[in-house]
Amino acid sequence: MSAPLTFDGRVVLVTGAGGGLGREYALAFGQRGAAVIVNDLGGDIKGGGRSSAAADKVVEEIRAKGGKAVANYDSVEEGEKLIQTALDTFGRIDIVVNNAGILRDRSFARTSDMDWDLIHRVHLRGSFLVTRAAWNHMKNQKFGRIIMTSSAAGIYGNFGQANYSAAKLGSRLTETVMPPDLVQSLKAEYVAPLVLWLCHEACQENGGLFEVGAGWIGKLRWERSLGRTVRQKNKSMTPEAVRDTWNEICDFTDATKPASIQESLHTLVDVLSRVQDERGIKANPTAASSSNPSSAVGQTLPEMSFTYTHMNCILYALGVGMSTKEPDHLKFLYEGHEDFSCLPTFGVIPAQSAMTGLGSIPGLNLDFTRLLHGEQYLEMFRPLPTSGTLTSRATVADVLDKGSGMVILLDVHTYSGRELLCYNQFSVFIVGSGGFGGKRTSQKAVATAPLPDRPPDAVIVEQTSKDQAALYRLSGDWNPLHIDPSFAAMGGFKSPILHGLCSFGFAARHVLKQYAGNDVSRFKSIKVRFVKPVYPGQSLQTEMWKEANRIHIQCKVKETGGVVLSGAYIDLHADASVGAAPPQTDGLKSDLVFAEIGNRIRDMGSELVKKVNAVFGWEISKDGKTVRQWTIDLKTGSGSLQKGAAKADVTFTISDKDFMEVVMGKLNPQKAFFAGKLKVKGNIMLSQKLEVVLKDYAKL
């Protein structure tokens, strides 16, 4: 048997708790360990009079059973005072049950201004003021439960209760409109258990509307007919068109059940598109189709071609946050860099147009305004060239029925000539297209992975630019949701949002820097689930857990703590082997040492940064000529090693042979300096920290 629900340590305010439902709530909370503020003005059911007796009596009942309670006699229109009573007495507020109510039964024609206003002041305004007073306290303590008490009169309407119905959208208030035997069956004790469960920390319900009575509980939701579009482009919309399609407008066959403003607006967005495209008067696009989505499995899309240059690689790198402010970013931003590379996650770009091609697959009958990008998997088989023409072949791997929607798994293989470069799996969710009787799971889906049960091994925080979405869209995702404020507002967002694949690119960059030294040949694959949107200008926080060659990641918005990418991971190759030739060393033995230094920085970079806090430059010569330059950054982030020169605190110039003798302990650095074999430019005192870099962490 499950453990009983308790509220030990919780503080509950119940308004209108002097009798009826409110009293039952207060007693039940008190019996289960909560400290209770019993609020009641002490008036009659019409709002007249005032007395402390009702609240005091309930407090006495709670205390008599060993509970904790205090009375409050203020009107709910003085919400701050009610909450202050909780804070002064018990130090916090966890739960607010807005229950206070009065009744002024009148037919609509006989309802006076005072009747109308008084009902709304208590039921609506009172609930608002009490809730507002508690809100920030709950937000700061990261816990809170708020219950709004409604009535069937508010849901369905009732004769003689127009004001009450409007205010509520029971208790002793039912006595004036129900027969005694029915009132008896609607005991308050049959309602309180639902309220207690909704308020418990184990309950995750939010925004629900419930009808309860006589021991029965049901959840309500809105239903909408499929409707009809009754206007055409460049033509006036007429009442005659409404009249002629009225039966279809009111037909609830295959009705939809939008659960949010965003879902509701999806249809309007599609209607605008259909009218603009002159597709004429159509039934609501969410109408059920006789097609079978499962028949789409195995269908292929026409082969896609994608031609790009180094400019596209650079534009993508900028779009996912790379900057010339960071020296180790230059290899992705400057085509003249000796190690100029294309970021691995650019691999989604040649494949992303396959999603728009889904509309041509028989059986799917997609409404693209309802398409959400749920998950993404990318696997690299060799580093991407920095220019060329690629071809992609897409196949519908599976179609899943999730009830509230349909999931399509789209596999895309991208080739350079006959050579396979990368594989993408797009997992897209079509809201409202479920219920066709298909399977719910698929072995073809690349699975996400749970996070290790420990604090992250590394964290990188990076602020996105206000123009991040505007920049990223130039890589090919032209959805106006990411640039047009009015379009974003139609989707329920306060401003344009960042592309999910942009956050995907940020997180991959962070792992590539932290654990692969920005070596693209070590990148094998990445899997993410998209959770919440990011607004340009917010900071992305990538948390990383290293387990062998798999880096588990979770990406959050730093300012809100909201998770952006979940169940995510990146797999790395143990060495730079992804079909690439071994690195050219020009016969330099020092390359092996710097490679090992790079490995140590990846594994222990944060510790090295704390010990060293400096940037070292190295110029390695052979036969009297400088043939290699290295920069060891042990000052910023978790450290990095890169080929090439960058601004350094101290720069050393030495031959390959002498460098190896210093590392192996055969040549004393001071003797090498005075003999002219080792030249130092910059802060010479930092030379003392070389031992930490070379001796302790470059063992061969």
Automatic annotation (TrEMBL):
Superkingdom classification of source: Eukaryota
InterPro entries: HotDog_dom_sf, KR_dom, MaoC-like_dom, MFE-2_N, NAD(P)-bd_dom_sf, Peroxisomal_Beta-Oxidation, SCP2_sterol-bd_dom, SCP2_sterol-bd_dom_sf
Keywords: Fatty acid metabolism, Lipid metabolism, Lyase, Oxidoreductase, Peroxisome
Pathway entry: Lipid metabolism; fatty acid beta-oxidation
Domain Ketoreductase: 10-194
Pfam families to which the protein is assigned, alphabetical: adh_short, MaoC_dehydratas, MFE-2_hydrat-2_N, SCP2
Gene3D superfamilies: 1.10.287.4290, Hotdog Thioesterase, NAD(P)-binding Rossmann-like Domain, SCP2 sterol-binding domain
Localization per Swiss-Prot or TrEMBL: Peroxisome
Family stated for the protein in its record: Belongs to the short-chain dehydrogenases/reductases (SDR) family.
PANTHER family given in the database record: DEHYDROGENASES, SHORT CHAIN, SCP2 DOMAIN-CONTAINING PROTEIN
Protein name: Ketoreductase domain-containing protein
Organism: Cirrhinus molitorella (mud carp)
Top-level taxonomy: Eukaryota, Metazoa, Chordata, Craniata, Vertebrata
